[in-house]
Design goal:
By secondary structure, the chain is of the alpha+beta class. The chain has 20 helices and 18 strands.
């Protein structure tokens, strides 16, 4: 009964940790389940506890599911189905969740609380096992949510120490002191963390992708690493003509980096659709004709981002979830971000001009495009290189072709996810010629603006993999990419892709397209641009449009993704280290408290207690009434070590004349140190290690 009472507070700590994952929290039914979970531990025999646990589990399943199923096997199947659904949703829904709308996820929390509390009750007679249950049962949910976990960590540590102490007075005092020290240490800048481990990577249902695929839609040039596990972020039902899926555009250049600048827009509601082309002078006239639109149906699988992904030339939206907001250019964001299971439909206008049509497009731009020509004092290197490569191009299209082919094929550039430090700026990238798609897109867009061509950086995903049987494109996190959009009168924003070996634009005007032919532009471009294209023609079969498996372009840096996740092995190692540190501190604190006296008689008693504790950790019992000579005989008989010197000094300190007690107490302490050293030499490493982790000296048997 006592062991069960000790488990009540730790059980509440575990339960509270799980209920944090939902809002509002449903305590009454959960507490009833916790009470059921502790009942089996009251049974005195093992078979009785197993029988009681079976009955409690059935009752808990009935209470948790509120199912009108009479047969236990039917109830088990019903609960298992809903638990599995909730588990799948659990790793794909933003936390905390509303249990009213996610009853299956609420069932998962109830099952977790019941399971861990039941395990805690059954392990109550073995304190170390019970502590492990508390650390895992409360630590797992406590790290699923961000925020400051210091108080929760202190509560978990206190619950663990309570189990170790078994409500014994001194141990409780030491435990409270240790929890306070841990909390104080955790608040130091070198230790404090909002989240120690990223447990969202612990996807038990392996076929369900994690929710943590997020992106920083902003320019960064320091390098990145893709997670090894490829995750499908969304699926699109759309025509087989490949397009890039755009999340946003970076149209503001500060002289060093590109940034997102969203200007609010208010699309018109026409024919049941939100038409974003209305009132935007940068859309071509043909984009406003619904007969020219192509439809794309998006199914979000594992994209936790507030940007709505669309085809590059989005023209209209259907119903978008989560209260969308719109910006110029068709960019949309949603409150709280997209979630797994969200779906929406968009329509896009994807012009397919020929090279000759673009070559006839004059360099005449409306006033609305002025922002996309701004360059706030870019480094001189951009202008020098841009004019060297494409300065003699007679049309904006010729300049775009020259730069695109130079970056992709003839400029000597190398794709790498980990560029040298010199390439951590765009100007440095031009010198070392090594980087990834943000470098290529950012540099080309700056150089186009230098030449007077409106340009910006677009970010999102390449087309992905098409399945003709389902007419769907599957897009993964490894398909994330950055490219360039240049504006042409009559066609609007058109994509170009300067990253070598990356992407496959379908339009024949781009060097990145497998349909591009140098011969088709032979009479259009001249000078350096023509020379570059002629050189690039040698690599037509392998350099244009082919997506190399080893050339995955990185436009974004995943956040909370698998690269920074933590493994179960790491957690267990931390748990073991924490337990060892707690044991060492508890034993040290107990020993120091005994020696905190000037009375030589008490100092001698402290030396005796220290030896008795040492022997207890080696499973050698010493009677409380044992005299010093009896203690020496126990050491001699069990460990074959002579302890008579310690026994004589201890007897003199405790029972000799008061005038000699102080000197005898000092000699007792010296003899104790010598005796312990000789005992350690006899024990060996294994027994010493077992004694270090033993709880017997703390009163736990």
């Amino acid at each position: 009964m006592r062991s069960v009472l000790v488990c009540v507070v730790p059980a509440l700590v575990v339960t509270a940790s799980w209920l944090r994952l939902e809002e509002p929290q449903r305590w009454p039914r959960t507490l009833a389940l916790v009470a059921l979970a502790l009942v089996p531990s009251l049974a005195p025999r093992a078979w009785q506890r197993v029988a009681a646990l079976t009955i409690a589990t059935v009752a808990a399943a009935d209470l948790a599911t509120r199912a009108s199923v009479r047969h236990p096997l039917h109830l088990a199947g019903y609960a298992a189905r809903h638990f599995w659904r909730g588990l799948n949703d659990f790793y794909a829904v933003r936390l905390p969740f509303d249990p009213s709308f996610r009853p299956d996820m609420h069932l998962v929390l109830l099952a977790a609380a019941f399971g861990f509390v039941a395990a805690l009750g059954l392990a109550a007679r073995r304190p170390v096992a019970a502590v492990f249950v508390v650390l895992v049962g409360a630590g797992w949910p406590a790290t699923l949510l961000g925020g400051h976990d210091l108080l929760r960590g202190a509560a978990i540590l206190g619950a663990a120490l309570l189990l170790l102490s078994g409500f014994r007075g001194r141990a409780v005092v030491a435990g409270v002191a240790l929890a306070g020290l841990a909390l104080a240490a955790a608040t130091q800048p070198a230790v404090a963390r909002d989240e120690l481990l990223h447990w969202q990577r612990w996807n038990i249902a392996r076929h369900v992708p994690t929710v943590g695929v997020r992106y920083v839609w902003d320019a960064q040039y320091d390098g990145f690493t893709w997670p090894r596990k490829v995750t499908t972020v969304f699926v699109v039902k759309a025509p087989p003509t490949s397009v890039y899926w755009r999340a946003t555009v970076l149209d503001a250049f500060d002289g060093t980096r590109w940034h997102e600048r969203l200007q609010p827009a208010h699309p018109a509601f026409l024919s049941g659709k939100l038409d974003v082309t209305q009132g935007d002078a940068l859309y071509p006239p043909a984009a406003g004709d619904p007969a020219r639109w192509r439809q794309s149906e998006f199914d979000i699988r594992a994209l936790a981002d507030d940007h709505v992904v669309t085809p590059s030339g989005v023209a209209a939206y259907g119903a978008v979830p989560h209260d969308p907001s719109f910006a110029r250019g068709g960019i949309a964001t949603v409150q709280g971000g997209l979630q797994r299971g969200d779906d929406y439909t968009v329509w896009s206008y994807e012009p397919q001009p020929t090279p000759r049509q673009l070559a006839r497009t004059p360099a005449v731009y409306p006033r609305a495009i002025a922002h996309d020509l701004q360059l706030p004092n870019p480094e001189h290197a951009f202008a020098v290189v841009a004019h060297k490569i494409a300065g003699d191009a007679q049309t904006p299209y010729g300049a775009a072709l020259a730069l695109e082919s130079w970056f992709r094929s003839t400029g000597g550039f190398t794709y790498t996810q980990h560029p040298p430090k010199a390439a951590h700026t765009l100007a440095g990238f031009l010198r070392v010629k090594a980087g990834y798609c943000q470098h290529f897109a950012g540099a080309m867009a700056v150089m186009l603006r230098t030449l007077g061509v409106p340009a910006r950086v677009a970010e999102g995903f390449v087309s992905g993999t098409y399945d003709p049987s389902t007419q769907t494109w599957t897009v993964t996190d490894h398909d994330a990419h950055a490219w360039v959009e240049a504006w042409f009168a009559g066609y609007g924003w058109l994509p170009f892709d300067p990253t070598p070996g990356r992407g496959s634009l379908s339009a024949p005007y781009s060097v990145s397209s497998p349909n591009f032919r140098v011969a088709s532009v032979a009479s259009i471009v001249h000078g350096v641009a023509a020379s570059l294209l002629n050189t690039a023609a040698i690599h037509q079969d392998v350099g244009f449009g082919e997506k190399g498996a080893g050339l995955i372009g990185g436009s974004v840096q995943p956040q909370g993704s698998t690269a920074h996740g933590a493994s179960l092995g790491r957690l267990l190692a931390l748990v073991v280290l924490a337990l060892l540190a707690a044991l060492g501190l508890a034993k040290l604190a107990r020993r120091r408290m005994r020696y905190a006296t000037r009375d030589p008689r008490r100092l001698a008693a402290a030396c005796r207690a220290e030896l008795v504790d040492f022997l207890a950790d080696q499973r050698i019992a010493v009677a409380a009434s044992a005299a010093p000579a009896d203690l020496a005989r126990v050491v001699r008989g069990e460990l074959e070590v002579d302890a008579r010197g310690f026994a004589d000094a201890l007897a003199a300190a405790r029972y000799g004349p008061p005038a000699q007690a102080r000197a005898a107490a000092a000699r007792t302490h010296t003899e104790l140190a010598s005796l312990r050293a000789r005992i350690r030499g006899r024990l060996g490493r294994v027994r010493r290690a077992r004694g270090f982790v033993s709880l017997r000296s703390l009163g736990v048997r």
